[in-house]
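Quick log. Single chain, no ligands specified.
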Amino acid sequence: MKIIIDTNVIFSALLNTNGIIGELLFNSKDVLEFYSCAYMRDEIHRHWEKLKKISRLSDANLNASFDLLLTKILFIDEGLIPPDVWLEAELLVKDIDIDDIDFVALTIHLGGGLWTGDKTLYGRLKAKQFSHVYTTTELALLR
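-> predicted structure:
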């Protein structure tokens, strides 16, 4: 199953490297394939200092953790997503959080499921009958 990971999931994995998110990422090879938007790497780096502060990891340790996580994710250039998919994604997220459009568009484009820790996004997408969105707990049960 193709799973699109949004930034907050990676953020959480970096803050708790021994948690369920890391376990899912590193031990689901035969069941789940992980994807994300190419710009997610830049988004993480924009919050790098905050991540260092909260995690209390050194720059080297945080980099090592991030590099290891990146080996488990295939990044897709958002430019490959067709315009009609962008329009569909916009209709879904415009009244939730337009910043999540990339992840929803990639989910639609790949025919996968969106893994998010954003409870508002999750709940509102489900309310719109977008059933391809999962919490960490749901994903663990699928595996």
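The mean pLDDT is 93.
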